[in-house]
Amino acid sequence: MAALSARSTNSGRNGEPASVGDDASAVEKKATSKRAGLSLKARALNFLSRREYSRLELGRRLAPHADSAEEVEALLDALVEQKWLSDERFAHSVVNRRASRVGTRVILQELRQHGVDVHQTEIIKEELMATELERAKQVWSKKFSAPPDDPRSYAKQYRFMASRGFSGRILQQILGDWEDDLA
Fold first, then answer.
1. In a domain, 30, yes or no
2. Contact at 8 Å (CB) between 111 and 94?
3. Residue 164 — φ and ψ, nearest 5°?
4. 140-177 as b/e, with b when 16 or more CB fall inside 10 Å?
5. Does some domain include residue 81?
6. pLDDT tens-digit series, residues 101-155
7. Cα gap 63→75, rounded to integer Å
8. CA distances (Å), 180 to each of 66, 138, 142, 171, 177, in order?
9. Distance (Å, rounded) from C-alpha 47 to C-alpha 113?
10. What are phi and psi of 167, to 5 degrees?
11. Which residue pairs, CB below 8 angstroms and at least 24 apart, start in 95-102?
C-alpha cells in the first residue's frame, strides 16, 4: 500500500512518472529563455534577414529589448556603418513592393511614416512621378474593363483610383480622355 501511495504522488497524467513532465517543461523554459536571451544585435540581424527596415522602424522594434535608448542608437549606428541597415535600400524596397498597385502619394506617405529622410523621399517622388501615368493605367485596366459610360461609373472609377493614391491630374488624363470619346 505504501508503494502504491508513493507511486501516485510521483506520477503525472496517465500514470507517467512526474520527471517526464518536468523535463518537458524544463525544455520549454530553456527554449523560451534562449529566445529571450538573444542579444540586441542578434535580434536586429534576425529582423533584417527577413526584410529591409528603416532606421526608425528597427529602433522601435528593438527598444523593448534594450536597457536604454543609447544602446539602441549605438547599435543602429553600427548597423548603418556596416551597411546592414540602409534607409535608401528600405525606400527602394517599398517602391518595388508597392509601385505597381498604388500611386505616388501612398508610397510617399508610407516612407514618411517610417522616418525616411526628406531628401531621399524627394528623389523617390521624382522617379515615381515620371511613371505615374503608366502605372495608373495598369491599375485601372486590372480593375475596370471599360471606360466610364455615365457619371456614376465615372465617380466610382475616380474614387477607386484616388483611394489608391493617384493624383487628380493623372485621373483626369485617364478618365477624361474616355469621357470625351463618349460624347
1. no
2. yes
3. -85, -5
4. beeebeebbeeeeebeebbeebeebbbbeebbeebbee
5. yes
6. 999 999 999 999 999 999 999 999 999 999 999 999 999 999 998 888 888 999 9
7. 11
8. 61, 20, 22, 14, 5
9. 19
10. -75, 155
11. 95/124, 95/127, 95/128, 99/128, 99/131, 99/135, 100/135, 100/138, 100/139, 101/139, 101/164, 102/139, 102/164, 102/165
Set of cell numbers at residue 179: 469621357
Domain residues for the domain of 60 are: 38-85
Average pLDDT, the chain: 83
CB 72 within 8 A of CB 131: no
22 or 103, higher pLDDT = 103
Grid cell 498604388 is found at 102
Rounded Cα distance between 165 and 89, Å, is: 22
Q: What is the grid cell recorded at 93? A: 524596397
The CATH number that applies at residue 53 is: 1.10.10.10
Which three cell numbers, joined as nine digits, stand for 55? 532606421
Q: Is residue 60 part of a domain?
A: yes
Number of domains in the chain: 1
Asked if pLDDT for residue 7 goes beyond 90, the answer is no
- Considering the domain boundaries, does residue 99 fall inside one? no
User: What pLDDT is recorded for position 29?
Assistant: 46
> What is the pLDDT, as a whole number, of residue 177?
52
